[in-house]
Fold this sequence. Notes:
- This protein is mainly β.
- The chain is built from three helices and ten strands.
- It has a three-stranded antiparallel β-sheet with strand order 5-10-7. It has a three-stranded antiparallel β-sheet with strand order 6-9-8, with no helix packed on it.
- The longest helix has 5 residues, at 246-250.
- The chain starts with 11 loop residues before the first strand and ends in a 28-residue tail after the last helix.
- 5% of the residues are buried.
Amino acid sequence: xxxxxxxxxxxxxxxxxxxxxxxxxxxxxxxxxxxxxxxxxxxxxxxxxxxxxxxxxxxxxxxxxxxxxxxxxxxxxxxxxxxxxxxxxxxxxxxxxxxxxxxxxxxxxxxxxxxxxxxxxxxxxxxxxxxxxxxxxxxxxxxxxxxxxxxxxxxxxxxxxxxxxxxxxxxxxxxxxxxxxxxxxxxxxxxxxxxxxxxxxxxxxxxxxxxxxxxxxxxxxxxxxxxxxxxxxxxxxxxxxxxxxxxxxxxxxxxxxxxxxxxxxxxxxxxxxxxxxxxxxxxxxxxxxxxxxxxxxxxxxxxxxxxxxxxxx
Length: 313
């Protein structure tokens, strides 16, 4: 076992790109520095059964920190194999009690924080979230649906609905009101409605019989009124507005947007336009780049990675 203190490494591994596509890993080498390797794969661990190939633990620090030096190569590459009974888990990240994150991914300018892809298939899922999800920015999707167990056949079917799309950020409120003896009614809304929305539109539908109902006074001070109906008549109402809250103002919706230069000629869904999968934006993002021959012996500078030190055993 290697052990080191004072900022030293208990193991140091460096890749040199000496592998090939058909044989990616070089021979494992050691030297007098202790646990030190020169290979195209810095660390490889294999485990079977319910054991752990690599177990990393840290207190008040980073349990695992990885650095990739260009060429689109992954910082951490994890592969899960399926057994005859269960599917494998490529990466299992678990947080303990207290405030914090089980996993944290931060991108820099011009990069994507996380790319997740799934094999083709109706029930294959790129990202499965069990529990709540919070997105503080903008969420883009070609379709946005909800899926639940079918109320009539919960054990054998799903029930799926889609959202209503719009070319603007909108809020909608609706309900029913029973008109008074004068054929009038008042609708009271929470105080935040006028802070969130603007340019409100109204829709009224009389129930039971026709009536010339109309909006007698528009929304103001959390209230709007309806008139023109019969005493005791129920009226369904709908109120739609355009969002004006700070988040909507800070990130206005751009309905038609030009693709950046590096994505020109590429598609989100190339198959829908009779184009090959190689022209997808995802294919560009995950393409493997081969480093130039002149850089095959490139090493990390001192500012990027501390040099290895002799370790105690």
